[in-house]
Amino acid sequence: MKKWTYFRDRDELRYAGSNNGEVVIIIDLDDIEIYINENGEINEIAIYNASKYLDENEIKQIADIALVKKEKHL
Questions:
Q1: Higher per-residue confidence, 33 vs 24
Q2: Least C-beta-crowded within 10 Å: which of 2, 21, 47, 69?
Q3: How far apart, in whole angstroms, are the C-alpha atoms of residue 1 and residue 44?
């Protein structure tokens, strides 16, 4: 079974989890890198050029989401 599918036209990476349902991640490779392990868990989010377009609160929201996702799997 293929867990990861990349849809080029939508620039979307989809993970089909076995018991958690489908996790959808929108990525822009020039701006944000999302590090995900083989179980579909977010290990780290790196924000590069996107920081030019996001304010401090938006960056904190992204970090909070990543932290919650990571803590759920610990």
A1: 33
A2: 2
A3: 25
Is the sign of the CA dihedral 65, 73, 25, 38 positive or negative? Answer: positive
Count of structural domains, the chain: 1
Structural domain that includes position 57: 4-72
Query: CA–CA distance from 67 to each of 10, 29, 43 (Å)?
Result: 26, 21, 9
pTM: predicted TM-score of the whole model, two decimal places: 0.42
| Tens digit of each residue's pLDDT (9 = 90 or more) over 30-74 | 677 777 666 667 767 777 777 777 778 887 777 776 665 555 554
